[in-house]
Specification:
By secondary structure, the chain is mainly alpha-helical. It contains one helix and no strands. This is DUF2933 domain-containing protein.
């Protein structure tokens, strides 16, 4: 029975961070692909 609990905890310890990373990367890629979220660089005025 101990091995079953240990296996479940190990799976959770691997799956939870991976799912968080995948969600973060998915949001990052969505933002990179959306041109409306890009802010223009401030233009320097020539003195």
């Amino acid at each position: 029975m101990e091995y079953g609990i240990e296996a479940i905890l190990l799976i959770l310890a691997v799956v939870c961070p991976l799912s968080c990373v995948l969600l973060f990367l998915k949001a990052l890629i969505r933002n990179l692909g959306d041109p409306s979220t890009i802010t223009e660089m401030p233009k320097r005025e020539k003195e």
